[in-house]
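Reference record:
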Amino acid sequence: MPKAALVYDHFHVSKVIHDALDKIRGRIQRELPPAGRRTLKGQRYVLLRARENLNGKQRVSLQEVLAVNTDLTAGYILKEAFRDVFQAKDLNEGRKRIKEWEGQVRESGVPELIAVLKTIERCRKGIENFFRYRAANGMAEGFNNVVGTIKKQAYEFHDRDYLRLKILRICGNCAKTS
């Protein structure tokens, strides 16, 4: 397929940012005295969840966690800022937003986030293709997940036609709706 383009959607690129934020949290937790560690204990998902999806209690927890360390605060702010990058309407705006975000990361000096810049650079063409085509592969990934589950359940069957029929029976409606 000579005209096919590799596209990295925001879910996959954001995972790299989330992993970096989790590394920051882990590093800070190791550096803190035992009393300070309690503040970060069990707060991983509060840091990773989108700000608008936090309930009142989680917002209070987030404020406590962010008060622990400036690297953690910078990481969280940059994670949220990265989500805004993918709100760009076209390729030029997307490029501009990525460049601004990269500058903010360098300015922060947080080593875990600076390491993310290498990944962004390596995947730049695929990220830019997201702005060109506005394509995401969530539907394909969901389909592959269902097929993988069917294959595990039908492990003892060695008939490809039977597997195909199972997939069509379970996913047939998916194909009709899309």
In short: The chain has ten helices and no strands. The chain has a mean pLDDT of 86. The CA atoms of residues 5 and 129 lie 7 Å apart.
